[in-house]
Q: What sequence folds into this?
């Protein structure tokens, strides 16, 4: 590197300060914790409680479900020394690692060999590289999260720096690369790839030295001793967990299966989002010129071989996640380490092309600017979405958002964006590339709905309390003394090895407990209205029973002859949790359950044995949550309100089914987006008011006063004198019947009243699939209360429906439940 002048030193200082400030504000902007981060926090908690790095305390089997040993140890040490718990410390530590990553990247640029013309403007290009990185939302998002990502990215960048910028073959080079490779492996298991490459490079040096001097070779071999840390850790894992690989490997890996159809979409989505095709074009040109000038492979120096090894290891790392794993559950997490490397390598390639200053600046600026539109349009469209209902399975079409901002966007650009949207939709539906905003809101949702860790610490641990979960992070943190059965297997030996895989394929969401496994532990801990409730077991759970359950089911999942019968307490298939949830989606939302919803709600039922109040209360809760979902409110409930407003009564079952299908045929992409929903509903009403039943009730010969009065009377909106007068005047000015009807349907008082009635009345349409029988003596008391505007207990009414003989006979001849179970 050329000597820094005073002017360049000041410029470098300003660039550094500006980058530090920008990263901090970007870190604050994208700050989030993932539910998965709390898995590691749970292991740290158990270490603090004296059990070691285990998921559940003994006598439960020890499993390694955190896959980030060094991250766990670091946060554990910080907690012990400073008293700062992992959720409070993790993101600050990630920010420090992010700064260190940029520092290492800056050193790479400062030490890079450049042609004189670009060398004179090295600081300018460093500023551009930092600008590219700190304006990249993937880089900023993974500067927090609570996961080990920032730490892994830092060590990987440091490993590349040690390989490429320290004197090759020297003992400092050997020691540094070996040490950092060991740190990489301890941080995340995929760091083992870089340790293997490091071992190969060092072995080639030691073997060459041994031919000249054994003493020199021996000293070099001693310098590589940090690699022994990896062997020690492997042995420790085998002793503690009785396994060579983390439990998560078995939970996420399906024997004999690779998933390129997912990974290729994941990679293409990443390339399109950040316009990395420009990087690829320049890369191909540089490689072509390099090959053309190279006469033979023998010309390569050892330094060139190191560069090739580094590039190959990075490529293999990307290919492993892309072709074998199929991407990652999180938004570009396993590609996030590439952001800084891509920007530095792009500058290096511009130098190799021997471009002058202006073309180099133009190309790098273009590379940076093209990386902005898609991620930041997506961010602007989602940043104000809050709440679990609005962000679950968050698919946000960028093409549609772009059209709103720039209505005159050329069609070829919209086609480009729609390609990206199609890739994203497929991925997210398969639990791949779930966006930052969804994970952020999910953590906030859990934080708001679950009790505090302080309350969880007060629960007694006597009798081995057990709960179940699929999203196990936050709940396991706030329940430190409760044993959690992870039904997705990340932290459960049996579930992780169960060969019966749930379909369709999803990222890390395919494992299911063997039939009867969860019930073997008699789960007895649930959350009720923000408080933990421990139910008394009829038969106590003992240490011996826990050991027997784990051993017997561990043998079962490794035995090719397996029992597949459902648990003995399932006598009607509607009591099987996955079937019940799937059927509920079909009845209420008129579609198959998305994998996320199916798994989440099925897990919600696991802690409640059938035939108990808890079981029926949990089923009723799922009904009410789906009832409140915008997809239901804007489709099924909208149709109900149309009939209630126009005719003063609930729709007949056949009419309801037909209207719901017609509205669905209008292809609303996102029921949470008014820009999608309102045009579809308007189009539906315009055709609906032209039907014979409506024209009979409201003859065409009616004048505006007659039409408005009859409509408001049927909707029981009285007196509403000023509203009626306003609507009459509007119709005389040209307002259509459909527009008036829609406003009545959306009137706040009408919606409040009918929503309460609908929660009860629509159970007949949805669960019993028949017309509402107002004379049914079982339910008439509740319907009469509604007519008198008296309060009702909707959960009780739903329970009466779900435990009715009529409902149960839809799914089987056995009737295991009765209304007496509804308290």
A:
């Amino acid at each position: 590197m050329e000597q820094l002048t005073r002017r360049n030193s000041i410029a470098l200082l300003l660039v550094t300060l500006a980058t530090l400030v920008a990263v901090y504000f970007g870190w604050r902007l994208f700050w989030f914790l993932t539910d998965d981060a709390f898995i590691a926090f749970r292991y740290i908690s158990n270490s603090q409680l004296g059990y070691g790095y285990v998921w559940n305390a003994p006598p439960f089997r020890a499993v390694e479900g955190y896959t980030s040993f060094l991250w766990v140890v670091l946060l554990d040490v910080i907690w012990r020394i400073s008293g700062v718990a992992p959720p409070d410390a993790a993101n600050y530590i990630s920010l420090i690692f992010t700064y260190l990553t940029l520092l290492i990247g800056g050193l790479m640029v400062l030490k890079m060999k450049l042609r004189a013309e670009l060398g004179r403007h090295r600081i300018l290009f460093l500023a551009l590289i930092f600008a590219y990185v700190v304006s990249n939302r993937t880089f900023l998002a993974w500067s927090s999260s609570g996961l080990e990502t920032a730490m892994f990215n830092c060590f990987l960048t440091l490993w590349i720096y040690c390989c490429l910028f320290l004197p090759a073959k020297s003992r400092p080079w050997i020691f540094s690369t070996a040490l950092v490779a060991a740190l990489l492996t301890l941080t995340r298991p995929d760091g083992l790839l870089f340790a293997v490459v490091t071992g190969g490079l060092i072995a080639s040096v030691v073997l060459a030295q041994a031919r000249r001097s054994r003493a020199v070779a021996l000293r070099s071999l001693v310098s590589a001793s940090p690699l022994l840390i990896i062997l020690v850790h492997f042995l420790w894992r085998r002793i503690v967990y009785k396994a060579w690989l983390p439990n998560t490997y078995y939970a996420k890996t399906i024997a004999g299966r690779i998933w390129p159809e997912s990974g290729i979409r994941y990679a293409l989505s990443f390339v399109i989002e950040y316009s990395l095709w420009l990087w690829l074009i320049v890369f191909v040109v540089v490689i072509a010129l390099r090959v053309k000038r190279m006469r033979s492979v023998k010309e390569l120096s050892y330094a060139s071989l190191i560069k090739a090894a580094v590039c190959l290891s990075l490529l293999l790392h990307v290919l492993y996640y892309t072709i074998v794993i199929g991407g990652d559950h999180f938004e570009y997490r396993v590609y996030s380490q590439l952001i800084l490397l891509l920007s530095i390598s792009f500058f290096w390639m511009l130098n190799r092309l021997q471009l002058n200053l202006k073309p180099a600046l133009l190309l790098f600026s273009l590379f940076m600017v093209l990386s902005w539109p898609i991620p930041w349009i997506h961010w602007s469209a989602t940043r104000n979405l809050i709440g679990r209902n609005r962000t679950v399975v968050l698919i946000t079409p960028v093409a549609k958002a772009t059209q709103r901002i720039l209505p005159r966007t050329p069609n070829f650009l919209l086609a480009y964006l729609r390609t990206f949207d199609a890739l994203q939709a497929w991925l997210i539906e398969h639990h791949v590339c779930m966006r930052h905003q969804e994970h952020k809101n999910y953590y906030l949702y859990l934080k708001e709905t679950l009790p505090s860790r302080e309350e969880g610490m007060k629960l007694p641990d006597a009798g081995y309390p057990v709960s179940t979960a699929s999203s196990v992070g936050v709940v396991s943190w706030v329940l430190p003394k409760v044993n959690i059965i992870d039904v997705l297997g990340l932290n459960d030996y049996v579930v992780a090895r169960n060969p019966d895989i749930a379909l369709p394929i999803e990222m890390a969401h395919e494992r299911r407990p063997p039939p009867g496994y969860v019930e073997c532990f008699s789960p007895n801990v649930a959350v009720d209205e923000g408080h933990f409730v421990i139910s008394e077991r009829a038969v106590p759970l003992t240490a011996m029973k826990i050991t027997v359950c784990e051993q017997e089911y561990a043998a079962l999942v490794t035995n090719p002859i397996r029992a597949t019968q459902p648990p003995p307490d399932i006598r009607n298939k509607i009591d099987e949790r996955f079937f019940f949830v799937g059927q509920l989606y079909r009845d209420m939302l008129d579609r198959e359950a998305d994998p996320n919803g199916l798994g989440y709600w099925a897990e919600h039922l696991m802690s409640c044995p059938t035939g108990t109040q808890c079981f029926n209360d949990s089923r009723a809760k799922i009904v009410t949550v789906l009832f409140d979902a915008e997809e239901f409110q804007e489709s099924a409930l909208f149709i109900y309100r149309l009939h209630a407003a126009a005719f003063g009564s609930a729709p007949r079952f056949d009419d309801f089914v037909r209207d719901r299908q017609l509205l669905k045929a209008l292809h609303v992409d996102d029921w949470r987006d008014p820009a999608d929903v309102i045009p579809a509903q308007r189009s539906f009403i315009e055709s609906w008011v032209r039907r014979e039943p409506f024209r009979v009730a409201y003859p065409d010969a009616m004048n505006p006063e007659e039409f408005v009065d009859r409509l408001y009377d049927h909707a029981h909106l009285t007196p509403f004198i000023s509203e009626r007068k306003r609507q009459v005047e509007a119709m005389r000015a040209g307002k259509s019947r459909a527009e008036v009807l829609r406003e009545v349907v959306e009137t706040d008082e009408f919606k409040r009243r009918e929503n309460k009635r609908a929660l009860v009345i629509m159970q007949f349409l949805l669960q019993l699939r028949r017309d509402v029988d107002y004379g049914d003596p079982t339910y008439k008391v509740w319907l009469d209360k509604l007519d008198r505007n008296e309060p009702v207990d909707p959960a009780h009414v739903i329970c009466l429906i779900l435990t009715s003989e009529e409902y149960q006979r839809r799914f089987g001849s056995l009737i295991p439940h009765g209304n007496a179970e509804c308290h």
